[in-house]
Specification:
The complex is a heterodimer of chains A (414) and B (193). Chain A folds into 2 domains: 242 residues, Rossmann fold (3-Layer(aba) Sandwich); 133 residues, 3-Layer(aba) Sandwich (Rossmann fold), CATH 3.40.50. Chain A contains 14 helices and 17 strands. A 7-stranded mixed sheet of chain A has the order 3-2-4-5-7-6-12, sandwiched between helices. In chain A, helix 1 packs across helix 2 and helix 12 crosses helix 13. Chain B is of the alpha/beta class and 193 residues long. The chains are: A alpha/beta (414), B alpha/beta (193). Chains A and B meet through strand 8 and helix 10 of A and helix 1 and strand 2 of B. Strand 8 of chain A pairs antiparallel with strand 2 of chain B, so a sheet runs across the interface.
Chain lengths: 414, 193
């Protein structure tokens, strides 16, 4: 489904999938080099870009490669020459890039990538969960989690500003299918709007044959830590720059965003914390009569790296209970948003620190329905203490029921 | 909110039909959300596409399990798929079929309608004579039976999506709009938005 419309002179509303919106964001940002390798469910981003780039009026290259590792290598090579660079991938593709994700961040290259959240194999899955992007948490890439197709387009554009201001690469994350292949109304901003927001890249350093220099050379114990601390500090700066970018974007487009979005938090006793598209369905849940009676609020975490710890303490301090839905798991511990949030809440004084309840669900594309979110809230409201801290929810079969393990066909019990 | 499920086979254009409905509904002022069954689609296998229409922003990001209307592009699917599974009482079944007998298996709690979309699409040379592509034709019939969008909205949506190829698809959709037959009206009315 790669139906595209001509580049707009004025902002206009189109019916686009999350993936088409991602491609439009990269195109309107006047990305100069795109290199990517197709993988479901990311492929339609690249197809749409290939289509759009037939009409690019600026010097640009679309570089075909034989793997995601090579795609990121091309992005690194292109970015270090001072150009604006974009790529997109999913799951195993992102995992294959892993070494070079460190290289891109360590080289301080402002590459923007869309990761379409797809569950890691095996069992072979093309459906959504967040373990692919969250496995790259410590590579030095900023991460933003989107919940609508409009979010995706807008955040790809804003990601270039954040990346190029700080020399930190940025990953814009969207859910497989639920967002990537779901079409809805998206306002595609006029080229002029994006140009006003995002001037051409002016690199603070670049590979230049007229001024030879070495990049990525040996760095001994006398300097390595300083360079890494600078990466950390620059990443933290994004926490302040994103709200500024949101304010500028809102002035230009009328669309307002926040690093942490809240609904009904003014008088909340219980807060539901979500990311990605679950945050959309959850908005319906917290509007219900029951949720209003129980004073349930909703907090959506958009920015994951840098982690908005202070902001979350401000929003959640004084709430009695916090329920976190994780479409991911750090096996052997907790859902990852849950553990990050708990670490942030530790900074609150005892009297204002909520009890934290973790729920792992929706893995491998399992539907996170209204009923399953209500289940999370009812459990949180009724349990006096979070024991166990993490509950796995939404399995179709009851615990103990035999299931076929798809890899070997053997019956196993869970 | 109105939820629609479309049944076809890979290659018959169920997903494009849902997109066409979305464009038409968006023109009528609806908020829209359309998506395919999230799976590995291959030519010829049964595929499903979904549409949600509402007068307010759509925030549900869940599967459609209880549709208000069902559009069936391929009559042979009725032999082995529960095509009206979850369909709400009063909802419409709009089926591409050679005659009204194709609707006999369905419960009388639904509005039942048929049109020979294959013959219409073949007459307009959309697809081939033996494998006509009926998606655009059937959206015309769907518009008439459900009243969710007007035929002019369908035509305008085709203009947006297909450009030069809109004319032939519009003609087929209009033929189906005129030819579709409602053979049963249920006692309950369909849900409104």
């Amino acid at each position: 489904m790669t139906t595209t419309v001509p580049a707009p002179a004025a902002s206009r509303t189109s019916i686009l999938t999350g993936n088409q919106a991602a491609a439009w964001g990269a195109f309107l940002a006047r990305t100069q080099v795109v290199s990517a390798y197709p993988i479901t469910p990311q492929t339609t981003i690249i197809e749409t870009l290939a289509d759009l780039y037939q009409r690019a009026t600026w010097p640009s290259r679309f570089v075909n490669v034989e793997s995601e590792h090579s795609a990121m290598a091309v992005c690194i090579g292109a970015s270090i020459t001072g150009t604006r660079v974009f790529t997109a991938t999913s799951a195993q593709g992102l995992a294959l890039m892993h070494e070079l994700l460190h290289w891109a961040a360590g080289s301080r290259l402002p590459i923007v990538m869309v990761d379409v959240n797809r569950a890691m194999a095996p069992g072979w899955s093309i459906w959504t969960d967040q373990n692919d992007s969250l496995s790259q948490r410590d590579t030095g890439w900023a991460q933003v989690y989107c919940s609508t197709a409009q979010d995706v387009l807008d955040h790809v554009v804003m990601a270039f500003r954040l990346a190029e201001t700080t020399n930190v690469p940025v990953m814009v994350v969207e859910d497989a299918f639920v967002l990537s292949h779901t079409a809805e109304a998206v306002e595609v901003p006029a080229q002029e709007v994006v140009d006003n927001f995002l001037p051409p890249r002016t690199p603070s350093f670049k590979l230049d044959v007229e001024k030879p220099a070495a990049f990525g050379g040996l760095l001994g114990p006398d300097w390595y830590q300083e360079v890494r601390q600078d990466l950390h500090d620059s990443m933290l700066r994004i926490g302040g720059l994103l709200p500024k970018a949101y304010a500028d974007w809102a002035r230009l487009t009328g669309r307002a965003y926040d690093v942490v979005e809240t609904w009904h938090m003014d008088d909340a006793r219980v807060a539901l914390v979500t990311s990605g598209t679950v945050s959309q369905t959850a908005q319906e849940v917290v509007e219900s009569d029951w949720a209003r009676r129980e004073k349930v609020g909703l907090v959506q975490i958009r920015l994951f790296r840098p982690f908005p710890a202070a902001r979350l303490r401000e929003v959640l301090g004084g709430v009695e209970k916090v329920a976190v839905i994780d479409r991911n798991c750090s096996y052997g511990h907790h859902g990852i948003f849950f553990q990050e949030l708990k670490s942030a809440l530790y900074g609150l004084p005892d009297a204002r620190r909520p009890k934290a309840y973790g729920y792992v669900m929706g893995l491998g594309g399992r539907d996170v329905s209204v009923e399953s979110i209500e289940d999370v809230l009812r459990r949180t409201v009724s349990r006096p203490a979070p024991e166990p801290e993490t509950t796995w929810l939404g399995a179709v079969l009851p615990p103990g029921a035999p299931v076929k393990a798809c890899a070997c066909g053997e019956e196993v019990t869970r | 909110m109105i939820e629609v499920r479309m049944h076809g086979r890979g290659g018959q254009g169920a997903v494009l039909a849902s997109l066409l409905l979305a464009h038409a509904a968006h023109r009528c002022g609806y908020h829209v959300q359309v998506f395919p069954e999230f799976g590995v689609e291959r030519r010829g296998v049964p595929v499903t596409a979904f549409a949600r229409l509402d007068r307010r922003p759509i925030r549900l990001r869940t599967r459609v399990l209880r549709p208000d209307h069902v559009l069936i592009l391929d009559p042979a699917l009725a032999h082995y798929l529960p095509l009206t599974d979850g369909l709400q009482p009063g909802g419409s079944v709009v089926m591409n079929a050679a005659g009204p007998e194709a609707l006999e298996p369905f419960a009388r709690t639904f509005r039942l309608a048929w049109v020979d979309g294959s013959a219409i699409a073949a007459r307009h040379k959309i697809g081939t004579a033996t494998a006509p592509i009926v998606n655009t034709t059937m959206v015309g019939a769907f518009a008439r039976v459900t009243g969710l969008v007007g035929k002019d909205d369908v035509a305008a949506a085709m203009e947006e999506l297909f450009g030069a190829k809109a004319a032939v698809n519009r003609a087929a959709a209009f033929d189906a709009y005129d030819a579709v037959q409602v053979v049963h009206e249920p006692a309950t009315a369909a849900a409104g938005v």
